[in-house]
UniProtKB/TrEMBL annotation:
SUPFAM superfamilies: Winged helix' DNA-binding domain
InterPro entries per the UniProt record, alphabetical: HTH_MarR-typ, Tscrpt_reg_MarR-type_CS, WH-like_DNA-bd_sf, WH_DNA-bd_sf
Alphabetized Pfam families for the sequence: MarR (PF01047)
Residue ranges occupied by any HTH marR-type domain in the UniProt entry: 23-158
Keyword terms: DNA-binding, Transcription, Transcription regulation
Organism placement in taxonomy: Bacteria, Bacillati, Actinomycetota, Actinomycetes, Jiangellales
UniProt source species: Haloactinopolyspora alba
Protein name per Swiss-Prot or TrEMBL: DNA-binding MarR family transcriptional regulator
């Protein structure tokens, strides 16, 4: 049984048999898979009253460890979003009572974003369901296939120039 990309590739092979269409199959499938996965994860976030970007910020703060706090600048660095976009997102999260913001007492030009108790509970509840949802989305692959795919995608990302961001320094007490 073929997928939709097989159909597209067949059309291209008929129209341009002189070309190697292999890259189109890989990139097309990664793109389509990303859309399906994103849609599946958004449903879970919505069930928790969140949008994907809100979960990303809450999860970033949660992964930072106690005191679950980062500067706004660190959030910009880990999210690849502009400072204006992060500010708007933090405003929305603060309005929901999920994060608080305060001026860094050691650097008045810096703002500290802290996960509230409510935000901590929401992200912990959401991440557990998020992992269950990801398991469901990947159920077509056996565990060893998932590991193999993860390794291949890591190699691809590194080849495309992706690197892990430096872990932000913990804020001053």
């Amino acid at each position: 049984m073929g997928d939709s990309v097989d159909m597209y590739l067949g059309q291209w092979r008929a129209e341009r048999p002189d070309l190697d269409h292999t890259p189109m199959g890989v990139v097309g499938r990664i793109s389509r898979a990303a859309r399906f996965l994103e849609r599946g994860m958004q449903d879970n976030f919505a069930a928790h009253g969140l949008r994907g970007y809100e979960f990303d910020i809450l999860a970033t703060l949660r992964r930072a460890g106690h005191p679950y706090q980062l500067t706004a600048g660190d959030l910009v660095g880990t999210s690849m979003k502009t400072s204006g976009a992060i500010t708007n997102r933090i405003d929305r999260l603060a309005a929901k009572g999920l994060v608080s913001r305060e001026t860094d007492p050691t650097n008045r030009r810096s703002v500290l974003i802290t996960l509230t108790e409510h935000g901590h509970q929401v992200v912990d509840d959401t991440v557990a369901d998020h992992l269950d949802r990801e398991r469901q989305l990947l159920a077509a692959l056996r565990p060893e296939e998932q590991e193999q795919l993860a390794g291949l995608l890591r190699t691809l990302l590194l080849g495309l120039g992706d690197t892990a961001p430096e872990r932000p320094a913990p804020p001053s007490p």
